[in-house]
Amino acid sequence: MIRAVIFDLDGTLLDREVSLNKFVVDQYERCNQAFIHINKNTYIDRFIELDARGYVWKDKVYQQLIDEFLIEELTWKELLDDYIHHFPFHCTPFDNAENTLQQLSKDNLSLGMITNGLEVFQMNNLKALGIGHFFQSILVSEREGIKKPNPEIFRRSAEFLQVSMKECLFVGDHPENDVTAAKAVGMTTVWKKDSYWDEVDADIIIEDLGCLPAIVKYINEKEGRYHGY
């Protein structure tokens, strides 16, 4: 019986690729005097390449950009501060994110989130999406002192939600940090499909968040029939 649904944030509820592209374009245009000698598309493409899908923190990204493009009017710290402040303004959810969370809540499911990252930054992004109120538990790796794929952060989430591991459905986009890690502690896993990855050993694969309420209902009805025999 599924009693709780736990989500990853980036790449699962937050469309990070779209959000990042919007931000980088905006930063380039706002800081045009510092970047005037750099082709816009060249800057954007290099930023996204160095970002490595969010797995390289922006201090390293901006230091590299300043060295490569000989940026003199702004320091990497100023650019990093600009990123931290302005990125939330560009946060874009995946289709049906809010509707899905609303329906799951109506179905009396507890909702949790586990996200790697810096607490203030991730909480600002969540606030920008306007969906934080749906969650009974939000664990951010910086605050918790552990991060995915450490099994302890998954156990901690289940404990906060007062459910067992087997009563949790975990939804994420990363094959190892989300799917493999959640499955290892006994959770049912849903992979939010990402074309960057080829094969993922998840229990369920989805492209649209909107199908999650029906998936939970199917699992629970199937288990109910099984226990009725």
- Which regions contain 5 or more consecutive residues with pLDDT less than 50? none
Query: How many helical stretches?
Result: 11
Biggest sheet: strand arrangement: 3-2-1-4-5-6
The proportion of residues forming helix, as a percent range, comes to 40-55%
What is the H level of CATH, i.e. the homologous superfamily of the largest domain?
HAD superfamily/HAD-like
CATH architecture of the largest domain: 3-Layer(aba) Sandwich
Report the principal-axis shape: elongated
Query: Can you tell me the CATH topology of the largest domain?
Result: Rossmann fold
Mean pLDDT: 95
Order of helices and strands: EHHHHHHEHEHHEHEEH
Domain count, please report it. Answer: 2
Strand content: 5-15%
Set down the secondary structure blueprint.
Blueprint: E1 4-7, H1 16-30, H2 32-35, H3 40-51, H4 58-69, H5 76-86, H6 97-106, E2 110-115, H7 119-129, E3 137-140, H8 141-144, H9 151-161, E4 168-172, H10 175-184, E5 188-192, E6 204-206, H11 212-228
Parallel strand pairs: 1-2, 1-4, 2-3, 4-5, 5-6
What this model shows, in words?
There is one protein chain. It is elongated, with a radius of gyration of 19 Å. The protein folds into two domains: 4-15 and 92-228, HAD superfamily/HAD-like (Rossmann fold, 3-Layer(aba) Sandwich), CATH 3.40.50.1000; 16-90. It has helices spanning 16-30, 32-35, 40-51, 58-69, 76-86, 97-106, 119-129, 141-144, 151-161, 175-184, 212-228, and strands at residues 4-7, 110-115, 137-140, 168-172, 188-192, 204-206. It contains eleven helices and six strands. Helix 10 (175-184) links the parallel strand 4 and strand 5 (188-192). The mean pLDDT is 95. By secondary structure, it is an alpha/beta fold. Strands 3-2-1-4-5-6 form a six-stranded parallel sheet, sandwiched between helices.
